[in-house]
Each structure stands twice: as structure tokens, then as C-alpha cells.
Amino acid sequence: MTIDAATPRITGETLPADQFRVHRSEHTVDVERVLDVLHGRLAACLVRGFIPTAECATITRNFWASAHRVPRYGEGAEGVEAYVLGASHIETSTSDYLDAVDASRDGVRALYANTGNPITRLHTSLAQRMSVARPAAHAGRQAGDSKAVCWNNNSGEFLLLPHDDLAQLSDPLQKDFEVQRVRRVMAVNAYPDVPGDSGQLKLWNIAPDERTRAALGLTHSGYPYPPDLLDGHPALTVPVATGDLCVINGNLVHAVLGDGSSSGRSRLLLTCFTGMAGSEFVWWT
Ligand SMILES: O=C(O)CCC(=O)C(=O)O
Questions:
Q1: Which of 12, 248, 267, 278 is most solvent-facing, going by the fewest CB within 10 Å?
Q2: Residue 14 and residue 2: Cα distance in Å, rounded?
Q3: Is 166 close to ligand 1, i.e. is its CB under 6 Å away?
Q4: CA triple 176-13-212, angle to 5 deg
Q5: Every domain of the chain and the residues it spans
């Protein structure tokens, strides 16, 4: 895009330079640092080897064998193509989302058949530090615990364009859903299969404000921020690999990088969103 005086700048909150970093650990989650991400004091935590090798292999096999895996077709040049197993709350009403959770529950359970569930393990670790930790809920119905995604976009610079995870919570279709009380999203991402260098995560030190989103027409989506507009903001790249867990401050703009080849086409992500609804820790997909 051409940047001229009429092009909006991306303005918003930033983390202090010493907090805009990735905390790394091996195999075990450093719960204190994950709480720093949750509460907006740290950009990300990367846990190498969080998912044991055999568990990665079983989940990956279960995903590709599943009859519950569905293709998602993107619309237009910025459309998001993927294979997905599990429900997504994005651009849907609360009741349709909860219907999708119910419809996909058996499929998601089967994803973890004969093996462990890394997302549930993280929830359990964090629950020990919370008075309440639970799936987000509405009218007695519960949000999903996790979904599995394989991005299937033409791998140019990005497998998934720059976006934030907060804006989508403001969708008027979900005004009855308690996730709209969450002010900071922590995205939980676990990787049973990352071929080669595909799908590294890039984070920019900017949590866009509402004025920026409105100017770009992204008020309820937070997707996609034009990459050129992010150039002046400090950025870091997280080289995720098979077996890793990475939690990120989802209010910050982030993207999934392509490697210019088709190797990203089998990269498998297990994910959910989390945040504090008042004093309660909740998650949804
Ligand atoms: O694929 C990933 O590693 C992260 C995906 C992501 O940012 C999202 O689903 O919002």
C-alpha cells in the first residue's frame, strides 16, 4: 500500500522495552511468567518440548484421520483458508458458537484419544493460581476448550496476516457473551507439528486503540493490519517448533510468517483464547 498523509498510523498501547520479550523455558511452564503475559506485563512465553514427541505424533495422526476436520474457505485476497477441528467464536452469534462447540465436542475429544491434551494441562497449571478457572459460559452452556487449525493459505510472507485477538470480542453478535468483559486476551498456542521453519510467530509492540481500528475498518475484527503500517513498531519473531507451547499477549498485533514454500501446509496448531472476566479466569475458542 502507498503510505501518505491520509493513511492512518497505528497508535495504541505499548509494553515497556524490558517487557517486550519472550520468556523461554524447557518442558515445564513457568507459571509466574505466564501470569505476567495474562496480566499484560510480558509479550510471550515459549516452552520448548512442552508436548512429548509421542503425544505430538498421536494428535497429528488423529487430526488428519478425523472426519470432524473441516476445510474453511477464505473470502477474497485476505480470506483465511484452513482446516479446522473444533468451534470458532469469530464472526458468529453466541448461540451459534455454542451450538458449534456442542457439535464438535466428540471430534475434539477424539483429537486427544490415546494421548494427553497440552491445552488442558496448561489450564490445570493456571487453575492452581486462580479462585475460579473455567470455560466461558452463557445460559448454562460452555465454550470450547481447544480447537486444532492448519492454515492453508498460499505461503507468501504470511500464513496468517497481522491481527489482534481483542477486537473480535466486541462483535455485537456476541453482546450477551461474557468474553466481552475480557480486556486482555492471552492466546494459548501449542504445536504438535511444525515442518521446517514454517509458521514462525511475529509480534509487534503495539496494541492498537479503537481509533486506529475504526480508521482501518477493523473495529470488530482486528484483522488484517496492513503490514506496511507496522514497519515503525518494534517487533520480535518467535521460532516455534514441533512440541512447543507459546502463550502470547493477544492484544499486541501478531502474525504467522510463511516461508515462501508449501511446507507450512501441514503445520498444526492447538489453540484457545484466555483472559480474566473480572476475577475469573476463562477460556474459549
Ligand atoms: O498459528 C499460530 O501460531 C497463531 C494463530 C493466531 O494468531 C490466531 O489464531 O489468532
A1: 278
A2: 25
A3: no
A4: 70
A5: 12-284
Its pTM stands at 0.95
Q: Does residue 239 have a cis peptide bond before it, meaning omega lies within 30 degrees of 0? A: no
Of residues 146, 168, 125, 147, the one with CA closest to residue 281: 125
- Residue 199 region by backbone torsions, left for phi larger than 0, else alpha for psi between -120 and 50, else beta: left
Query: Which residues have CB under 8 Å from 1's CB, separation 6+?
Result: 7, 226, 228, 229
Q: Which residues in the chain show pLDDT less than 50?
A: 1-3
Ligand 1 site, residue 271, Cβ cutoff 6 A = yes
What's the sign of the alpha-carbon dihedral 143, 111, 167, 214? negative
Residue type, 217: G
| 165 Cα nearest atom in ligand 1 | 10
Distance of alpha carbon 236 from alpha carbon 201, whole angstroms? 8
Distance 256 CA to ligand 1 centre (A): 7
Can you tell me which atom of ligand 1 is nearest the CA of 255? 7
Residue with cell 513498531: 233
- The one-character DSSP state at 214 is H
Which CATH superfamily does the domain covering 12-284 fall into?
Answer: q2cbj1_9rhob like domain (2.60.120.620)
Query: 117-162 pLDDT, tens per residue?
Result: 999 999 999 999 999 999 999 999 999 999 999 998 765 889 999 9
Residue 200 · residue 260 · CB < 8 Å: no
Residue 152: predicted pLDDT: 86
HSE (CB half, 13 Å, CA atoms) of 1? 15
